[in-house]
Amino acid sequence: MNRVSGHTFFNRFVDQNSIVVDLGANIGRFSSEMARQYGCACFAIEPNPECFAQLRNFGNVKSFNIAIADRTGQMRFFVAANSEASSFTRTSESDREISVPAMRFDEFSALHGLTRIDLLKVDVEGAEIELLDSLSDSFLLGIGQVSVEFHDFCDLVSKDDVARIVSRFRSLGFLSINFSKESHGHEDHLFVNTQRCDVGKVEFWTTKYLTRNIFGLSRMVKRWSNRRPSVAKPA
């Protein structure tokens, strides 16, 4: 398993021949790190023009200054001082409103010849429900792994909608693993397509419970280490 920028996935299904799509790329931390670690082709999509200005500096990542949404056309987009809080929804953090070009994901994929996607990362600040609802079953079955940051932890989406999306993926044969700590809803949720990724029952249950807790423990240790005051060495 690997975790990159808060998104956990089975790394043995990703290599230099893989296609990775990053929806809500922000300034490119996830895409650039995936390209660096695996040498794979990354498509980074970010509607915020200020973030995109930094994203396009990565030569090994194909970047697109558009929004992926449930419909194609111009859409209102609310920019926040904290770029990670910019979204289609006006919140208390929104500073200003702009208009951005948007495209359905199935149309984007057809336009760029993406007949398969090995890993899809979704972090679209509350628009994930409408986005996933807009995709057909056959389209989703063409994706190996889907890592979603659901924004139920900050009430941008409802827990009922998250449960409905999880149920749909399971009905299609995807394995569902929530790597998030309990207080953070489903901010690191992975769906694994068993038609494309050979994950057995033992590996699934081990990952779902043991690996998840190991990752959680490592996060706690890291936070404790960062907070621990430094002790000056004696001269």
Automatic annotation (TrEMBL):
NCBIfam families: fkbM_fam. This is FkbM family methyltransferase. Residues 22-174 form the Methyltransferase FkbM domain. Pfam families: Methyltransf_21. InterPro entries: FkbM_mtfrase, SAM-dependent_MTase, SAM-dependent_MTases_sf. One of its GO terms (molecular function) is methyltransferase activity. The keyword Methyltransferase applies. Keywords: Methyltransferase, Transferase. PANTHER family: METHYLTRANSFERASE, FKBM FAMILY PROTEIN (PTHR34203), SLL1173 PROTEIN (PTHR34203:SF15).
